[in-house]
Write a structure and sequence with these properties.
The complex is a heterodimer of chains A (219) and B (246). Chain A is an all-alpha fold and 219 residues long. Chain A has nine helices and no strands. The radius of gyration of chain A is 21 Å and the shape is globular. Chain B is α/β, with parallel strands linked by helices and 246 residues long. In chain B, strands 6-7-8-3-9-10 form a six-stranded mixed sheet, with helices on both faces. In chain B, strands 2-1-4-5 form a four-stranded antiparallel sheet, covered by helices on one side. The relative contact order of chain B is 0.17. The chains are: A mainly alpha (219), B alpha/beta (246). The complex binds adenosine-5'-diphosphate and magnesium ion. Magnesium ion binds next to helix 1 of chain B.
Amino acid sequence: MPSFSHFFETFIDSYPVFFKGMLLTLQVTAVSILIAIFIGLFFAFLKISKIKVLEAIANVYIYIVRGTPLIVQIFIFYFGLSEYNISGFWSATLALAFHNGAYIAEIFRGTIQSIDKGQMEAGRSLGMTNALTMRRIILPQAFRRALPPLGNQFIIGLKDSSLAAFIGMYELFNVATTAGSNNFDSMTYLLIVAVYYLILVFLLTTIVSLMEKKLSASD
Amino acid sequence: MSEKREMIKIEKLNKSFGDLHVLKDIDMEVKENDVVVLIGASGSGKSTLLRCLNFLEIKNGGKIIVEGKEIDPKKDNLNKVREQIGMVFQHFNLFPHKTVLQNVMEAPLVVKRKNRSQAEKEGKELLEKVGLAEKADVYPSKLSGGQKQRVAIARALAMKPDIMLFDEPTSALDPELVGEVLSTMKQLAREGMTMVVVTHEMGFAREVGDWVFYMHDGRIVERGEPQELFNNPKEQRTKDFLSSIL
Ligand SMILES: Nc1ncnc2c1ncn2[C@@H]1O[C@H](COP(=O)(O)OP(=O)(O)O)[C@@H](O)[C@H]1O
Ligand SMILES: [Mg+2]
């Protein structure tokens, strides 16, 4: 183990490269999660559509995501998309979106179905269409209920973005392993990168719980 | 004396859930300004009947004629029909993520596309009417059951329906809160609202009901004016039911 003063000095000195890596990590995570939310919502709707074919499509998607390692998914996207001149950044981001989308679909499906069916009936009885009731009444409540598990999934997505290192993305983890081997000091750099991840997870958790607070005004 | 307008007329209404035949050849007529009270044991089909009237359940057979027009669930725009028919539920079904005023304004805003200031003005008047003006900006979770149900009534009235359906509006309430909801409903009846009310409140039925229908096992087995039906029931099943609840 490195001494604390050595760790601390290296932490300060390496700040510029880690900062760059952190920005890339944040970009990959934020963009992939954003896309994953739309994918998740889409497949959640397929699953609750009560139309067999659509349900089956959603089930196959979720089954594939769950049944294969994320690193395999990332490489498949990477090699598959390189044909079309799509950058490593987008390969990694889309792979992570594809992956997280399945879990987020299950989160939304669960929370949408957990909303009391009297809510839909109340909307319908007022002359609102199914779609309008879904959008104005059911989804806002389902989103609010989804927030804690979504927050969890965001954290998983953030940590999983480290796998983008394996297709050459110079994000946090790649910065740490590269600097570690260049300086024959892997342990110090791995501990440093762990601290970066902890800080990011802490910030993410804080943001999610602030949102939860804000949305709990009606409780 | 001019004949009162027919608001709802149903003929030979039948409804099944799978093998379960829940409504059997129901005939029924509700005239303008009438208050029709539906009574009957749990499971006799009262809720299903109400829900067929505003097409939350779709009948399997028979005719439903609303304000002179036979409604075909396959062809007609049911959302439009539901705009004319307000409904109040046993469990209120308020929108928990919206304030009291937002609950009342929601349908006028998004269904009737009223402008916000108009919807707000009318919403506040309705809250005034049900005695909850000071609760406009609180969320439903902060209200008592009786207050919730009065908001639900205001929310339904905001669409300016011609007919109001009530499905056991006081059954989920603590006894001391029943009165405030019933008096709101009585006020509505006095103003001439056409109402179909499922309730076990026989005092209410006697006081404001024009007709009482007794349902048993998917049929209306006896109907009459309240005094007559309560004091001189003709059918043995009606007698048994009345003695079981009084
Ligand atoms: N959606 C449904 N699916 C299947 N059965 C139902 C459904 N709704 C009501 N029923 C059945 O229909 C019968 C009548 O129910 P309901 O109309 O709720 O009676 P009531 O309101 O008089 O208590 C009951 O046996 C009930 O279990
Ligand atoms: Mg019922």
